[in-house]
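Amino acids appear as letters; backbone shape is given numerically. Here is one record.
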Amino acid sequence: MRREGLGLLRAFLVLVGVSALCSVALGTRKGNTSLDQRSHRHRHPGHVSLHRHRQRTGKEGQVLHRSKRGWVWNQFFVIEEYTGPDPVLVGRLHSDVDSGDGNIKYILSGEGAGTIFVIDDKTGNIHATKTLDREEQAQYTLTAQAVARDTNKPLEPPSEFIVKVQDINDNPPEFLHGPYYASVPEMSNVGTSVMQVTATDADDPTYGNSARLVYSILQGQPYFSVEPQTGIIRTALPSMDREARQEYDVVIQAKDMGGHMGGLSGTTEVKITLTDVNDNPPKFPQSVYPMSISEDKVPGEEVGRLKAKDPDLGDNGLVKYNIIDGDGMGIFELSTDSETREAVIKLKKTVDYETKRLYTLKVEGSNPHVDPQFLAWGPYKDEATIKISVEDADEPPVFIAHSYTFEVEENAPEGTLVGRVHAKDTDVANNPVSYRIPQYTDVEQFFSINPEDGMITTTRPLDRETQAWHNISVSAKETGTHQITKVRVNIKVKDVNDNAPEFATNNEVLMCETIAPGKLIETVSAVDKDEMANRQHFTFSLAPEVAHNHNFSLKDNRDSTASIYVLRKGFSRLTQDVYFLPVEINDNGFPAMSSTNTLTIRVCSCDSKDTILSCNVEPYVLPAGLSTGALIAILACIVILLAIVVLFVALRRQKKEPLIVFEEEDIRENIITYDDEGGGEEDTEAFDIATLQNPDGANGFLPRKDIKPELQYPIRPGIGRPAANRLGWEMSSVCSKVTVGRKSCCVVKTTCL
């Protein structure tokens, strides 16, 4: 128990602007109460002493008294947003044991002590040194204590007190979820609720009218009204027709101070749509869908999917999805999968983790079709919130387009501009980007690119007929890093009229010898390698050198075909079996192109029904004037000669080999010289033919293999010359070795000199 000698601390309460509270505080004090009549700017200090007395019964029934506290009080008040030049005096602490000699020191601790609230340790005056905001903190709990100045010994127990920040009307109402989008069924009754908008006021709702809100409609009458107290928007006209007008822009105002003059206000826009109805609205299984996407993704990448369920079938079960609100409306786009009927969220623009890390979308699913039977039901739609978080990535340069398609005319000169690709570094550093075309995508190097600005040009003239499309890739590299990204570039070679037309087919035209004049023998058409599509048209004419020929004529049918007619009769294969007709073909391109094509017309033998029997090419094989019978005779002679040769060879092979075998390498010649005179044609005994055929046998001489024979020797020595009246003969016989197969023979050639 503390000694009874401790006095009471006096608390001077400063109640700014609330005179009633001052009166209550000053008029309800008991005991030692004194008033400090000193005035202070904006303050009315008062001296308050409150006593607490507690009794309790001892063990023997006596009444025990607890010693009095030196100070007891409830709370102090200080007004918020005070901007005066001097610190605000909150109150004064004083103890009865303080005789004024300065031996007592007052100590303050707790929330804001020493920073927001300071105390004069001699006088006990408490001041607020900073401007206070009730919306940040409504009250502060502090602890006060009186101690001896020299020993810091507590003279009384510490006690807590509260400093409350008194509210003023300094916050206007705010609509945190605006702008709003709402819908109501068409033909709704008057008073049908559209939606409820709610504004919030940060001021103290328990003090005065600072947070008392009243709603009113500024725009949207006479179609809609709003309840002043609840903020519910209702229809004000009957039979509003969606087909006549579907959307209404309504402006709602919320005003505090109960709507009286001097109150603060805030507004929000509400877009109200009239919708059709059916018997079942769509419903999202979840109210919030978390999704994420990396910052290195390019536009067109899928972020996520969600689906609203509708038990209706057919058209009534179809759900249409829309992004109706959110700070990511310009960053993301929504499409519907035609197979799964899901809402597909895709990236519309690139996102940057360093700039913004979270996006919110509000997606609405509604039925596009209605059933008049359920006009009073609805609205039939549902909403879900999508929260998309951006994931950090070390991102390479990003091309502005997902792919590029350019066009360039064929035969354009070297250096012709094809197009430009552009990529940028989306990181904070925003480093420069260099471009190049990988060689494997442009093997023949038809194109080149400026590494600085991404301009693509040609390196040579292009030919559409050789290659109509060039699909290459362009890579972009961030300077100073290894980050590379690629994009597809499709280059279409535009056609120019640089190819002459030609016959569609090169088949020969077969014509009968007996064809009648004026008869159609062929209809020709043309083709052009150029890309003219349905605009292509050809004209035909005979070449100038045959324009006046007497055999054939040409008629242009004006449908890109021409007809060939016969002008005369009396064609003969034997006279001329092939005719060459030059035809000039022109197209309608710009510039126009033409070519001369030769049509081959072959004359054939036909029967009486003009059926072709034969189209021989005899004039190119046989001399002129040979008939079929002569040809057959020549062939028969050739066959007979071949048969004789074959028979001769066969007979030679059947002969026996001679008794004396000559080796293949033993080649000799025998020249037999006769110095005889013959008796003319009737002289049959001038020489012995057997001797000529076998001179070696006549002399009993057989050639030896180990002795090389002489080249020439006399056959019949000692024979004198015949009479002068006889015809003289000089004969020379040469024996040559001839090898046929594995057999050898000696051929004797006799010459009469």
